[in-house]
Write a structure and sequence with these properties.
It contains twelve helices and 19 strands.
Length: 519
């Protein structure tokens, strides 16, 4: 059964064998396995229970429901934007269904540093096979690659870079392109669609709009969880929920779990709790193409560039390049400019091709509880990670120029235009893994829209680096998307961009999805 804590008589007291905090990929899988093993299981989830019929395909409606802080969550100093999901199904509700196995090099490192000798390579392979069969993972058929992804493939071919097609966990996909705001057509083989039914069939229960506050423990043993019922709209506390349990499983994300453990004063002799956050930060660059790209059409991510992803090398690069896409409102919050300039950029929305460079970061961030319910995140990439992000930004710009159509590139926060050969040819990255004793520059840029320079470049060249401007807040890096956009600034009428966002949103929903697909 699925219950909504916000509609129950409060205070509420419950008892179970196992309480699982968090209903994303990890929590739902743990709960399902426990319930099917005969354990009386209750899952508590701070977000709502939403079905495919609730996915309205409107950003302003779905982001507040599917994302922490409505998609506006950042580090404490607001330098880094961090997207995390919520709702029954967690981040699997809004993610883009890109499936990859953990690289062997990372798994081997975990085995060595985390004492995972009980999980040899053969066991990992068997578990992967089982899970991929359960989620019906398959390669995305080439005929479903949209022009946006085909452009990246073309760039890799032109540059001689390594790349290839991706796999996903979708069934019955109608190519609507609304993956990031929840699938109205229930095509995602995610925690909600695949794992939740099995949990419920085995007698497990879910309590939505219920936010865990503290783990109750005594003498080294967990006794249950103290939680609160949350109003699904205002996110205000409605009343207390007390759950007594023999076992507690915390799967409340890398940030939520750490904050919960610290708030609960759970003993950790290692001192690692809340001090080892990794977020896989990313930068983005966008090219303005002469012919429409219409990146919103079809499956968002079907091709990857792995030229700078060298995790199997001791001193290799850690950059993964993929197509990126945001619907009109999300795009409008990231592109540079104000007023007429911003509107002009939004008018070119259909012509934008966007790439993101995500890194395997080594920087340890910090998570701390904040008040009774909140948390605070401290994160800024160290020199080595900034160098990798710079390389990623350069690689993205280079690929955009190689796609036979991207006319220009500019930096974030008002930084101006870099034309061919532009940043893709003029700036270089240090040899090897920059940041280890090198003086690799930070992210470059300038104010006032006069010039721009993206740090990074070809590893085989090393001209004198440009002078860095220092730490650029709200520029790079971010998770999922970045304000480090790259588009050609154009003149436009002195009107705001809201009408343009609404126009694109309406055209995409009505002209593409609503008329083509059912529901």
């Amino acid at each position: 059964m699925i219950f909504d804590a916000s509609t129950r008589a409060l205070p509420l007291k419950l008892s179970t064998d196992l309480v699982v905090v968090g209903s994303g990929a990890g929590g739902m899988a743990a709960a399902m396995a426990a319930a099917e093993a005969g354990v009386r299981t209750l899952v508590v989830e701070g977000g709502e229970y939403l079905t495919s019929k609730d996915m309205s395909q409107r950003e302003e409606q779905m982001f507040p429901k599917l994302l922490q802080d409505g998609g506006s969550q950042t580090s404490a100093d607001r330098a880094v934007k961090i997207h995390q999901g919520r709702g029954v199904g967690g981040s699997t509700l809004h993610n883009l269904n890109l499936i990859k196995r953990i690289p062997d090099a990372i798994r081997a490192e975990w085995t060595h540093t985390r004492g995972l000798s009980h999980l040899p390579a053969s066991r990992w392979t068997a578990l992967y096979d089982e899970l991929e069969q359960l989620l019906r993972v398959s390669a995305v058929p080439r005929e479903q690659w949209n022009r946006h992804n085909q452009l990246l493939e073309k760039a890799c071919s032109e540059l001689g870079w390594k790349g290839g097609g991706l796999s996903h966990n979708r069934s019955g996909c109608l190519n609507s392109g609304f993956c990031e705001v929840g699938c109205r057509y229930n095509a995602k083989n995610n925690a909600f669609k695949v794992l939740l039914p099995r949990l419920l069939a085995a007698g497990g229960e879910v309590l939505s709009n219920c936010l865990a506050v503290r783990v109750v423990h005594d003498g080294g043993a967990a006794r249950g969880v103290e939680a609160v019922a949350i109003d699904p709209v205002t996110r205000q506390v409605l009343g207390d929920v007390e759950i007594t349990a023999k076992r507690v499983c915390l799967s409340a994300s890398a940030t939520g779990t750490a904050a919960l453990l610290l708030r609960s004063d759970v003993r950790d002799p290692s001192g690692e709790t809340g001090n080892t956050l990794r977020i896989h930060p990313a930068v983005i660059a966008a090219g303005d193409f002469e012919e429409p790209v219409k990146a919103w059409e079809g499956i968002p991510q079907t091709y990857e560039c792995t030229e700078f992803l060298e995790l199997d090398k001791p001193d290799g690069h850690r950059v993964w390049v993929l197509p990126a896409f945001a619907h009109p409102v999300g795009t409008a919050t990231m592109i540079p400019g104000h007023g007429a300039t911003h509107r002009a950029l939004m008018e070119r929305y259909a012509h934008l091709g966007v790439l993101t460079a995500m890194i395997h970061d080594l920087t340890p961030g910090k998570v701390r509880p904040k008040g009774k319910l909140g948390l605070s995140i401290e994160y800024w990439p160290d020199e080595a990670d900034r160098a990798e992000l710079s390389l990623g930004l350069w690689a993205s710009a280079k690929a955009l120029f190689a796609q036979a159509g991207a006319d220009s590139v500019t930096g974030a926060e008002g930084a101006g235009t870099g034309r061919r050969p532009g940043v893709a040819e003029d700036h270089a990255h240090r040899e090897g893994r920059a940041g280890r004793g090198s003086s690799a520059p930070d992210v470059f840029g300038s104010d006032g829209g006069r010039s721009a320079a993206c740090a990074g470049g070809q590893r085989r060249q090393a001209p004198p680096p440009a002078k860095p401007v220092g730490r650029r807040r709200l520029a790079v890096p971010v998770v999922d998307w970045s304000a480090a956009t790259a588009v050609h600034l154009r003149d436009g009428p002195a009107r705001g961009s809201l009408a343009v966002c609404l126009k694109w949103s309406t055209e995409i929903r009505q002209g593409r999805a609503a008329q083509t697909f059912p529901g």
